[in-house]
Amino acid sequence: MSIALFAAAIFLVSYVIIISEKVHRTVVAITGACIMVLLGVLTQHEAIEGVDFNTLGLLIGMMIIVGISKQSGMFQYVALRAAKIGEGKPIPIFILLGIITAVFSAFLDNVTTVLLMVPVSFVISNNLRIDPKPFLFGTIILSNIGGAATLIGDPPNILIGSAAGLSFNEFIVNLAPVVILILFVTLGLLYFIYRKSLVTTDEARQAVMAFEPRKAITDVPLLVQSLVVLGLVFLGFLTHSVTHIEVATIAFSGAALLLLMTANDPEVHLQEVEWVTIFFFIGLFILVTGIERVGIIELIADRLVSVTAGNLSVTAIVILWGSAFASAIVDNIPFVATMIPIVMNIGHLSQLSITPLWWALALGADIGGNATIVGASANMCVKGMADKAGYEIGFIEYMKIAVPLTVVALLLSTGYIWLRYLS
């Protein structure tokens, strides 16, 4: 009992400090993990076993590939080409950039997507002489929505896929349909909200039409190499059910191949990896393993099964909305890492087929992260870039736009899960 109390105290204190943002979350997670081992909650061997290296391998591999690929200018080219296709008109450009953001986010991680899209949004909005905030809010919201569609689109999905053994194809088949629906409904609502502010002059439109997207491509050989490797990696993801090669191996192999093809000093490219995020994951895995080992996870799962009377439909809806609410308050990564063993224990205790619960958890966490500016890492990243550029995003200001859109998305998700899995 004393060990269980120690584990619970370490986990809760770590969580509270992470939420408070008084100390960097990676420092908190690593410190909490070390205390778990030092106090005997876990042995070092158990702590290492608790780290999901399939998740870490997938993240690191994709970070290296994207970090090298973006140096070719391919992503900026696509965004500037959209501005030309939109003929310099704010609303068509806004919609096209929103779709591009969602698509990028489905195949890149959300933070990388917003890092690529925000500078382009500033360039376009400044040339159009309009407020960039509609573009910034759209980037946040649509990156989180798009990220929900695939295994690699959002870190919570990577965690879920690795733990539950769900493939790249299964994520697309089960989540992409509702994500596409949510995407276009959200775009329609964003158009309704911002239609009167997305207005510019003919002179400003001509400034945007003067853009030359081709100049964004700074390295054609690297562009070709990157497209080849990305194609092979996605082919590997799609054929996982046949080859049974783990996604981490596929991503790492793609990274190794691209490093070989570019033949540059790997130190430069390895700096593109968000090592701070990787070590946050390591600490988080160990913290969750600690409370799982002492029986706390099983206890929570038992209580949830009791509350929902073992009813799969009720459990799925509770997880969907509960995950969304929690992810609006705290970063969705630590929340999902905590929920995964709880969902697994629900399956053991209730003897239910828990596959719908995984989709409910993914949708709730990914979409719920939209509700507040602290709900996901990508949100805070956009806020930081906006504040630095002199366009400070207020907590309430953002919520006024994001909360209604999040509720609509969750209602659509509820209907989808009910009709497809529970009816």
By secondary-structure content and strand pairing, the structural class works out as mainly alpha
Query: What is the CA-based Rg, rounded?
Result: 22 Å
How many distinct folded domains?
1
Strand segment tally: 0
Structure in words:
It is a single chain. The chain has 423 residues and is mainly alpha-helical. It has one domain (2-49, 74-216, 274-422). It has 22 helices and no strands. The chain starts with a helix and ends with a helix. The mean pLDDT is 88.
Key descriptive features of the protein:
globular; mainly alpha; 423 residues; single chain
Write the layout of secondary structure elements.
Layout lengths: L1 H19 L4 H14 L5 H6 L3 H17 L4 H12 L4 H18 L2 H19 L4 H15 L7 H10 L3 H27 L7 H8 L10 H19 L1 H4 L3 H16 L3 H5 L4 H19 L2 H12 L4 H18 L2 H19 L4 H14 L8 H12 L6 H28 L1
What is the structure about, briefly put?
The chain has about 425 residues and is mostly helical. It is built from 22 helices and no strands.
